[in-house]
Design a protein that fits this description.
Jelly Rolls, mainly beta, globular, 6-stranded antiparallel beta sheet, 8-stranded antiparallel beta sheet
Length: 296
Amino acid sequence: MKFLNFFISVIVTISTILGVDIGYGRNPKKRTIDLSGYKQVWSDEFDGDSLNTDKWNDNQNVDTIHWGAVRKGGFWHKDLISVSDGALHIGVRYVDEKQAAEYGDDYKAGWYTGYVTTYNSNPDNKSEPDTFLRGYYETRCILPEGEGFWSAFWFMNKGVYNADSSGKDGTEIDVFESLNYRRDGKKTSDLVSINLHWDGYDEDHKHFHVGDFYPENPYKEFNTYGVEWTEDEYIFYINGHECARTDKGGVSENPECMLLSVEIAGDNGIASGRGDINLNTGNPEFIVDYVRVYQK
């Protein structure tokens, strides 16, 4: 018991030095999100039978920020995006050469999935904002079950590329990433990761791993993932309970777009690493019940 207490004290000391409250991944202080003083200013409950393009851009081949058809070890295509039964569905499947050829010259045989973003969602309709600054942001979702799949709820803007040793002009805020599924049933299968990136993605790139956490059965059941973005820090929540907080890199002071995405581990459209993707069967999906935005 003395050793355990010593070990915990070391972890707390390290987390304090790094500027993050890791909460041992279990939120010992039982802090929950307090939305008093906030009001809901934006949401998508994904009702109906098609994506609301006044709120989301689903054109996978548009250079919205830094991507096109090829994304890491796979491809993004809008055919993998649908809305039904009150939810957004981003599917994952293998596409053969014949089908890929019908998509266009940028596409090859391989693993396909998709993303949606609020960035430049509809230039002809400015009734809804494309980007957001501060507030509380939450999604409720079921993660796509499979090795090599990488789903996420995150924020991005072009300021992330400014290599000025600060994330104040833009930080990639990964509210959660699911990149650790393991078919062999090890505990890592239920792990989600929270991360921050700034100063671009080349030699000046800065990355801070906020922590790893374990939602309840995330590949079978709905969980909520949220971030409270204030002037001073980011506070992360899972199912309404705080799991971490940090101001690492300097809190972004610029509006950013929201994204919901699935990626395939690998490079240049070739899947590799993080398990054997070819063992995956069925029709895995990233199922998103809602996205909600609250601001003061």
